[in-house]
Amino acid sequence: MPREFSRSLRVGEQIRRELAVLLRSEIKDPGMGLITVGDVELSNDLSHARVYFTVMGDESAVGTTRAALARASGFLRRALGKRMRLRIVPELQFVFDDSELRGARVDALIEQARRADRERGSED
């Protein structure tokens, strides 16, 4: 019977949980905004991890948080290696996840189209 989840998915989920704890409790960088780690995608050989994050605020908050994450990536890798006892600790690449913003824009467009339809319907 095959496993339901691959090793990279399981390790990625564990990295996501550990990073969330580390970012909340260990990183004291003033450039770090209110950050949420959404997902971690690992390469098959577990050597590279793409970490998707969201942050409260505008474009400048995203930029300063991305820079703070880049500065902290070495510390985070070391801490992950100690906490998870991984033989190979993946290189961390932080990517801003704008799916919530895109979803909000789509919702606004749908609502705008509904209002236009209601207005057109009341005119007839």
TrEMBL record:
Main localisation: cytoplasm
Xref: PROSITE patterns: RBFA
Localization per record: Cytoplasm
Swiss-Prot/TrEMBL keywords: Cytoplasm, Ribosome biogenesis
GO biological process: maturation of SSU-rRNA
Pfam entry (one): RBFA
GO CC, one annotated term: cytosol
Keyword Cytoplasm: yes
Gene3D superfamilies reported for this sequence: 3.30.300.20
Record GO terms (molecular function): ribosomal small subunit binding
SUPFAM superfamilies, per the entry: Ribosome-binding factor A, RbfA (SSF89919)
Family statement drawn from the similarity comment of this UniProt entry: Belongs to the RbfA family.
Quaternary structure and interacting proteins, as annotated: Monomer. Binds 30S ribosomal subunits, but not 50S ribosomal subunits or 70S ribosomes.
Designated name of the protein: Ribosome-binding factor A
UniProt organism field: Acidihalobacter yilgarnensis
